[in-house]
Design goal:
11% strand, 2 domains, six-stranded parallel β-sheet, 382 residues, Rossmann fold, 14 helices, Dehydroquinate synthase-like, alpha domain, two-stranded antiparallel sheet, alpha/beta
Length: 382
Amino acid sequence: MANRFVLNETSYHGAGAVKEIVPEAKGRGFHKAFVCSDPDLVKFGVTKKVLELLENDGMAYELYSEIKPNPTVENVQAGVAAYKKSGADYLIAIGGGSSMDTAKAIGIIINNPEFEDVVSLEGVAPTKNKSVPIFAVPTTAGTAAEVTINYVITDVSKNRKMVCVDPKDIPVVAFVDPEMMATMPKGLTAATGMDALTHAIEGYITAGAWELSDMFHLKAIEIISRSLRGAVDNTPEGRADMALGQYVAGMGFSNVGLGIVHSMAHPLGALYDTSHSVANAIILPTVMAYNAEATGEKYREIARAMGVQGVDSMSQEEYRRAAVDAVKKLSQDVGIPADLKEIVKREDIPFLAQSAYDDACRPGNPKETSVEEITKLYESLI
């Protein structure tokens, strides 16, 4: 069977990358942007950095900011209605996963109106037409939504996060500018950075991994491990490296899948509105230990990429433990909580475990699992 890889048509990296937005828009013959960005980014002047570029060149736009963390079906439907009235011919998503996921869903529905209920997009929907063209400008160094074919929308009526996978939704151009990430607070930098590490590690050990994806994931693990502490301390080098590392991770996992760290994190966002990045960061070490027996020699290479010395002289048990310990140490160093005690209610675990098992990311896990085993994993974290 052939292995498919889907990436952006074009991407720009480094300080000042956003200055390429106007030339790209003009070069593609676009006239008016529908800008999706969350209210906080608008409030604190982050979105304005891009809007000013458009204004200074006389490029028309309309701003849509009815977007919340863990965006909902209603956020998407309101966005679709606003887009139809706007006269726009392309989208600009400015933000983290929430803004980008909302833009992807809007872009798909505009060109595939039979999916306007949104919920029918869950899984791999049989859409026929490409999304409205999307320009993606990440403001967090973690989700890599600017280079993925996935988006996640919350169905509030069922307390369920819907993972939608569609190669037709990938942004045509990504502008990965570390200066757009410079205002991220410490806690968000830490959580989104560990989210990026989760993407790289789950993508590396997922059932669908192969040599090309392994190349991206191992390099991403290396970059993230060496740069996250610096990014949390707001060093320019750390910020720039994390911007690249999370993007490289996205190039890989988007094309091969993830695992139960993500499937366990998604219900926490749906039920408690927990930050997806925080949930992933907390769950990752526990699930790594759980999955270890099904990963062959891969934990040796994870440990090596994270800077652990002497891995070639270690036994399998030793290098597997070393990989898990390296992740735990990085997590502790950047201030990630060690458990879910402040988030999960014990009485909710049966619902969470069933939701995690039903999640679209679960089949990619390297180890066969069950509702009962996922229940035990949640219980071990509270």
